[in-house]
Amino acid sequence: MSYDYDVIVVGSGAGGGSVAYKLTKAGLKVALLDTGSAYNSDQFNRFELDAIRKLWWKPQWTTNFELNGGKSVDEINLGGGRVVGGGTTIFTAVAHRAPNENFDDWSNATGLKNENSEPFSYRDVESHYDRVEGETGVRKYTDWDLGVQRLKEGYSKLGIEIEAVNAYIDQNCDHNGCIFGCPTGSKKGSLLSYIIPGIYDGLTLYQNSFVEEVLIRKSSSGKPLEAYGVKYSNNGEIKQITAKIVIVSAGALQTPQLLLKSKIRELADYSGSSMRIGENMAVNTNTFVFGKFKETLNNWLIHPLSAHVTEFSLEKNGGFILEMSEIMDGPLGFSEVILDNDSRPMIGKELTNALKHYKNMAGVLIAIHDHNDGRIFIDEGGNVKYHKPVTGSDRDKFSRARKLVDEAFYAAGAEETYGAIYISHHPQGTCAAGEDRNKSVVDSNLESHDVGRLFACDASVFPSIIDANPSLTIYAMADILADYLAKRCGYLKPQ
Amino acid sequence: MVTMKENKDGAPFLLNKEDYELISDIAEAIVPSGDNPDEEPGSREVGTINYIDSVLLDAEDAEMKMLRDVLSAIRSETRRQGAVDFRELSAEKKHLLLNGLFDRGKTKDAYIFLRSLCLEGFYSDYHDPDYNGVTAWKLLEFGGPRISELDKDWSFLRIYSDSKEKV
Ligand SMILES: Cc1cc2nc3c(=O)[nH]c(=O)nc-3n(C[C@H](O)[C@H](O)[C@H](O)COP(=O)(O)OP(=O)(O)OC[C@H]3O[C@@H](n4cnc5c(N)ncnc54)[C@H](O)[C@@H]3O)c2cc1C
Hints:
The complex is a heterodimer.
Chain A: E1 5-10, H1 14-25, E2 30-33, H2 48-55, E3 60-61, E4 76-78, H3 87-90, H4 100-110, H5 123-136, E5 139-140, H6 146-157, E6 163-164, E7 166-167, H7 190-200, E8 204-206, E9 209-218, E10 225-234, E11 237-248, H8 254-261, H9 264-267, E12 286-292, E13 307-309, E14 320-324, H10 331-337, H11 348-356, E15 361-368, E16 375-378, E17 384-387, H12 392-411, E18 416-419, E19 422-424, E20 451-452, E21 454-456, H13 471-488
Parallel strand pairs in A: 1-2, 1-11, 2-8, 4-19, 10-20, 11-21
Antiparallel strand pairs in A: 3-4, 5-7, 6-13, 9-10, 10-11, 12-15, 12-18, 13-14, 14-15, 16-17
Helix pairs in contact in A: 1-7, 1-13, 5-13, 6-12
Chain B: H1 17-30, H2 43-46, H3 48-55, H4 61-80, H5 91-103, H6 105-123, H7 136-140, H8 158-166
Helix pairs in contact in B: 3-6, 4-6, 5-6
The structure holds flavin-adenine dinucleotide.
């Protein structure tokens, strides 16, 4: 059979954008499809509502009320990018490596192996982290705003040091709204670091193209099934393209949905690995604490996350990371997340009064080490559902972190603090990689256990939760996959 | 002030008159005006309801269903409290009623959807095309480079594209 492309990549976020670029660089003919549109830096601006409409998925919520006897407690708002560049077009650009321990957890969770069939460890990812940090221009971000400076004073009174984060941001940052797209191009997401250079090298980008299904057929060699293309919709028309391999990088929320819609479970006769699609979800549940100061901080004129406290990040040390200062970059987002004292979304005079002090607010993001106990599934009516319990141990982490953050705020001179809803921008683990077929969806080379020539490359492949913002680790995993596909994998060798 | 432009049902675009009025009252409960509405406008002054009526033209079926469900829950809860109209309830009772929708798993998503629409129709800096008063960004002093001089393109909203056509 002749194919349209060597490789089709579905989704242009951290995983998809970077793997597509690297395979193009390796001389392969690559198509990159994304349901979102591509924008130039000068098309991004501070019109919050418009940015949310154009660049973000509509918000989804976990529906834990079914687990909680009909009462809606502890549900999590799941947000992400539906735009070329995926989450990295709207992310806050914190670029951190996951700690060694997380990779030991990976090999223990699913039997993930390195290329020598040894248990996967930090050593296997280290050189890829080095390479990716070079490609994306990671630097220490030391330009702190007033909110962070105040918080630094507060933490230091408690004996806690805060550090500058590493970020994919160059010196041209003019402190204007990361999460609505970077208007200066100083933030280096997948679009600027990989997709645009890739297009110059021959990568074909299909924007506004929603992949409905991976095309799968019976195979006479290797695995009984193989992928050979995708069916996608563009401007209301359904089209199809073919390739020797298909890489699904639609993100940890969408990748399992696409695999389920492609009927892998049915085709693989409900194999153990196909039953793991959508299981094992961790989301690094986040919340915010906002502190109101007397002075005007104008904390929206900042790079939102420029400093962090990591000494509590490992489970054994507390299981949470604090990052700051974040007040959602605009009043609309702030009004959406702020809670009243009874932990309900704020409304009425209380809301308008709090918002009047938006200019006096600083904020701390709390991200916890939660567990891979969530799942994505499609119910009988065809609706996508997300279950993710916020467990007693999660709540303990939040309350310890909240206490610490409150103390830091008050020590820094804040007059009042406010809580926020649970949020996640870091879903992961929903198509885990590993050798144990009853615990993973793809193998250690990120190829589906059930379907040959079908790979996954995004946050969904993390076997267990990591204690760092995910993008750098996704980039590193994409780098490992690109090396494997270009150098060792038989599918792409010239016939 | 919210002006009800007449069409066959009495509301500008999509909503019928009853829903238009009820959502308008809910928006006022969520983002109320201050004591001096000229200086401290709320959803009523800027016309949040007209934002909602316009933006709903692009809503998905599932979103319209959520909206119908939450409005019907609000109506039945209002009646349960012995009132005919949500508007008649005291500010405190409105508050309790809305919070109750959040607490119940079955109405929570729909309530959050409705609350988001109300917030969008105010804190996005929305105002009706013919409103020249203070808007949210000014009220909150939300400004600075790339913000204060921003020329927002509202043309995705029918109320704005219609008013441009008239110009
Ligand atoms: C507001 C925000 C702030 C963040 N801040 C940070 C941070 O500071 N540091 C950090 O490391 N991480 C951060 N993250 C998380 C980070 O952006 C994600 O972890 C990362 O982008 C995930 O990469 P991915 O490849 O898994 O998927 P994504 O980046 O989500 O990319 C998936 C892509 O697939 C496309 N897609 C989905 N389904 C289909 C389909 N069926 N057909 C075609 N296209 C499809 C989507 O449009 C999207 O572009 C943040 C995220 C958000 C939302």
